[in-house]
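Researcher: I'd like a candidate sequence for this fold, 127 residues long. If you have to choose between options at a position, lean toward the conservative one.
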């Protein structure tokens, strides 16, 4: 097996904190479990094929269902706030400032915010 490397320009995207109001996100009523969270997104990058996106997300207190289909993954780094992801099997993973979280394809469960969370995220899908 051989590997071919090519030189290409490197495009970097640095983003640390949200600027401005961001894009307000809504939840389908069937997904909302608790609270009335204000969820906002500050997208910073999306690949031309739509398979990779990154940015900053922020949400206030609440809980809602999440389901990751086959081929969709998320990595996020918590800037501030506290919360947890809880799988349908009952495995609870709390997170807070400085934590890095990986959500695998096929994950089904609940995303909880205890104290307003701001995170840097990267989604990879359809791979």
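Model: Candidate sequence:
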């Amino acid at each position: 097996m051989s590997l071919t490397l090519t030189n290409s320009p490197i495009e970097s995207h640095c983003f640390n904190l949200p600027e401005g109001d961001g894009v307000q996100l809504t939840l389908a009523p069937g997904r909302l479990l608790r609270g009335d969270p204000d969820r906002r997104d500050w997208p910073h990058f999306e690949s031309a094929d739509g398979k990779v996106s990154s940015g900053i997300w922020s949400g206030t207190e609440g809980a809602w269902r999440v389901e990751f289909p086959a081929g969709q993954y998320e990595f996020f780094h918590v800037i501030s706030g506290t919360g947890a992801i809880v799988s349908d099997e009952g495995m609870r993973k709390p997170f807070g400032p400085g934590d890095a979280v990986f959500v695998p394809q096929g994950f089904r469960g609940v995303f909880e915010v205890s104290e307003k969370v701001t995170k840097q995220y990267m989604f990879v899908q359809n791979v």
